[in-house]
Amino acid sequence: MAAKAGSAGKARPRGVRPFSALEWTIAGRYLRSRRRETFISVIAGFSFLGIMLGVATLIIVMAVMNGFRNELMSKILGINGHVLVQPINGTFDNYMPVVERLQKIHGVRFAMPFVEGQALISGPSGAYGALVRGVRQQDLDRLPLIASTVRAGTLNGFDRSNGVAVGGRLAMALGVALGDPVTLVTPKGEATPFGVVPRTQAFPVVATFEIGMSEFDSSFVFMPMAEAQAFFNKENAITGIEVYLNDPDDIDRLRSEIEQAAGQALYLTDWRIRQSTFFSALEVERNVMFMILTLIVLVAALNIISGLTMLVKDKGRDIAILRTMGATRGTILRVFVITGAAIGTVGTAAGLVIGLIVCHYIEPIRQGVSWLTRTQLFPPELYYLSQLPADIDSGETVTVVVMALVLSFLATLYPAWKAARLDPVEGLRHE
Description:
The protein is an alpha+beta fold. Helix content is 56%, strand content 19%. The chain is built from 18 helices and 10 strands. Strand 2 and strand 3 (126-135) form a beta hairpin. It is elongated and about 110 Å long.
């Protein structure tokens, strides 16, 4: 028993507890700048700034890309519908029974018959091409994107108004206000012995709307369906039926029911096909931007490697003394892991805070920069939207934060391993 007690008393010390206060204290001293370690602290500072800016930029850019996609989708689908039903033979006259059957499908919000055609619209300030769509007032009231964005006039009594509702940008370009007449010209006029004569007719402006998407606000004209049928020579016929679903992603599930409800040879086109090129381009741009901006975080992580490597070389004597005092290789390894990980963690946290703040105030920031530079950032004629949107996705934000933390942690492993492998004799040889 005495022998066992003696052997227990001579047991080899196991060092300090992992991630103890001693290890955090040493790592904290290594992070603080001293006169002869200024260059190393500068590298650590640049690493911190790189990770902070990289994380903030990733969060901001991804939020803006998501905002663009969501805003464009809500506006495009808010007018054009989720499924377009058109006749194969070009004539769609017996359409009301089809509309009624479509509206009885569970999952269909409503079905809107419409007449559509291209026309030249002119006013005191010029003439422009326009997309004229003839609809019923009850259908316009079901479209919040139109009914809730009327800036002048009213849609009450639209079916009996014999007038048109035009986009705010188009009205401004034409130089017309509420009650002023606009002239519409369509090449599909009446046939005469001398050929087809273009049809010209004047309509008063009964309402102006502003959706917030420049492409629609500068080209769309809504007209009562009866007037549109007469203007485009479609007596008792329509161009097609727009079907609005409760959930745009239910197209595959409801497609067969819509085809059966049509009851005749009709051509169905959903929003994914009609806007596939546009949304695919947005998705590709979003993924490419994520890959490019991730390089900023990667470069900052490489700066952590270089800074810690130089710190290990500079602290060779201190490491040797710690080893001779009983510090284990694990202790040295954890000290430098804490040192490098602290830079990455604090930089990631700062980048997260900055990114969330900028996303929350993205539109005032855009306006402020435009005012300072006397330029128009993100002009709506090019980017379709009148305001800069930002929609933060929690999953993407967590992905960015985790990626930055993982890269920062991996960057610390090699320098920390080199420090742990340092021979105390070599560290003190030239002292």
